[in-house]
Amino acid sequence: MFFRQAGIFHTSYGADRALFPIPVDRWMITVLLLLALGAPWIVSSLALTSYVMPWLVWTAAALGLNLILGWAGQFHFGYAAIMGIGAYTAVHGARYGIPWEIAVILGGLMATVVGIVFAFAALRVKGLYLALSTLALQFVMDWVISHVPAISGGVSATLQAPSLRLLGQAVTSEAGLYYVALAWCLLVTMFMLNLKRTALGRALVAVREKDFAAAVIGVQSFYFKAVAFATSSFIGGVSGAVLIFTFYRAVTPEQFSVDVSIGLLAMVIVGGLGSIIGSFFGAAFILLLPGQINQLIAWLAKLAGAGIGVEALAHIPHAVYGALIIIVLLVEPMGLGKLYANVRNYLIFWPFGYARK
């Protein structure tokens, strides 16, 4: 009903290739953008800085990982290390007086260099062997970051990030930092939306499906795997830098450990491989839902007057959260993005369901 395509005529190639040819999609995007721009005045300061802003940055990182995992079909268990390299490079660059914009780009470029090293593993092995190789590289990068004082200052050291200066102007307000995170998330989202329509995006999908078959039709898997790792690593490096400057304000090795890589992988899988909107859903599910479940369980226990101990109250939400992940993947193995697509496809034909047969 809402997404029906009746009366929509494509009279040019531009109209046929539009990102959002259906009017309802454009209206929804416009409303979401207006809500995003007005978030500093709509939500509380605590929600803005503790929930919305980190969600945007982690969504950008999840989109970068989805590029290599969902589009190119290459396992990557070391994405947190890539983000850490970008964060440390940008912080050191800003501390040495390099303009913030250039420092962040340098962080992305340094992460790209490290990502190329990860790519060499992808060119030699596949599947679980690739997953194990990238996991090993994650541990190597963790050790290097922690034990090289020139990078992190030491095993337990905390490196304070300079204040964010955009175009020479200091950005210290919560709204200003939020808009920086929002701009980066929108930039990555637009890149991923357009990537799907390019020759590069189609080549990555061909490599994902069957690299030998792709080679037969002239798609060089060596080249496109390297491009996928490099591009994904640049997005991850910049995302790590933006996360430090807008949210953490300081960088430590623990912020980019292997647990973070697993969390990012969960965002992509729960959201949906190759799904852009699924990356938004997956980041919200993994990042924001646990805290909300904790509050809900505590409120229900108080409302029912149940005498739940502190230790049990701390573990019950984790069990509920794990059960929700299992339920989502059982209901739709393709993730939350596919659930949204199913609802959208249903509304396209409703109430004429027979038209799909």
Helices and strands in order, then pairings?
Elements: H1 13-16, H2 23-37, H3 39-42, H4 45-71, H5 79-95, H6 100-124, H7 127-147, H8 149-152, E1 159-160, E2 165-166, E3 169-170, H9 174-195, H10 199-209, H11 211-216, H12 221-248, E4 250-251, H13 258-271, H14 276-287, H15 289-304, H16 310-331, H17 336-349
Antiparallel strand pairs: 1-4, 2-3
Helix pairs in contact: 4-9, 4-12, 4-13, 4-14, 5-6, 5-7, 5-12, 6-7, 6-12, 9-12, 10-12, 13-14, 14-17, 15-16
Explain what you see.
With 357 residues, the chain is mainly α. The protein has a domain of 231 residues. The chain is 73% helix and 2% strand. Strands 1-4 form a two-stranded antiparallel ribbon. The protein has a two-stranded antiparallel ribbon with strand order 2-3. The radius of gyration is 22 Å and the shape is globular. The mean pLDDT is 83.
> How big is the Rg?
22 Å
Question: Low-confidence parts, pLDDT < 50 over ≥5 residues?
Answer: none
The termini sit apart by 17 Å
* Secondary-structure element string: HHHHHHHHEEEHHHHEHHHHH
Beta-strand portion reads under 5%
Helix content: over 70%
Inertia-based shape:
globular
Read across the widest sheet, the strand sequence of neighbours is: 1-4
SS-derived structural category? mainly alpha
Helical element count?
17
**β-strand number:** 4
Q: Average pLDDT across residues?
A: 83
